[in-house]
Design a protein that fits this description.
alpha+beta, 4 strands, Alpha-Beta Plaits, 1 helix
């Protein structure tokens, strides 16, 4: 279920992530950019949830390129 509260974030990682991970990442939209990086976009309810998501990306050994609040 897509979240409607919280701030909208865009996170970029170097490695590819398939869209099937979206459910596991709290319905974050996953897409590959033309530059070859993976863009994760979605609403994150609070800072605790943001750090939880970043911890998951770290545990998956993904290279974090940027984290940006877009709203």
């Amino acid at each position: 279920m897509e979240q409607t509260s919280g701030n909208l974030y865009q996170i970029l990682v170097q490695e590819p992530i398939t869209p099937c991970w979206s459910d596991w990442l709290n319905d974050i939209k996953i897409q590959r950019t033309e530059e070859g990086v993976t863009q994760l976009t979605g609403r994150i309810i609070d800072q605790t949830a943001l750090y939880g998501l970043l911890n998951i990306l770290r545990d998956l050994n993904l290279t974090l390129l940027s984290v940006r609040r877009v709203d």
